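lol ok so funny story. i was supposed to be doing the assay writeup but got distracted and ended up predicting the structure for this chain instead. priorities right. anyway since i did it might as well share w the group, maybe its usefull for someone
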Amino acid sequence: MDEREGIVTKVGKGDELRFKRRLNHPADKVWAALTGPGQMSQWFDEAHFPDTLEVGAVIRFYHAIVDQQSEGRITRLDPPHLIEWLWSGPFGKANLIRWEIAAAPEGSILTLMQQIDDPAILARTTAGWHICLDRMQALLDGAEIQSHMEGWQGLFERYSARLKAAGVT
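and the output, tada:
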């Protein structure tokens, strides 16, 4: 797998999903695409960030494809380099999501980490984040943003096979 691919490692009783993407944009522009008003809604699902980002504040999400709501309670914050939240909703146990943005020559490196306790959702979650990160990059690059479902099935099948071969699912 190249660095664009999600990597899953065993951590304690659960798993950790990690993506690392090199982006040709400075950290503050990537931060704005993640936390700016209306920005995440363009490449993820409908997202409503609080007016003031601070530890303890709540981000609200609406996932139209499955007609579900969820929320992220911010647990760590260091703009424009780090935001972490405890994500909870009807999809299972709350899990931690961390976004890190590091400066790099000619841009930045975005790392997404999610802790997942249910191996049954790893392949679909990995495929979903893969698509969302591709969509985020398209937004940053000023390119056309593909549908959430564009290419998802193929990624799901590929990640399912890799995780099964690794004995994860």
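The chain has a mean pLDDT of 92. Residues 122-141 form the longest helix (20 residues).
back to the writeup now i swear
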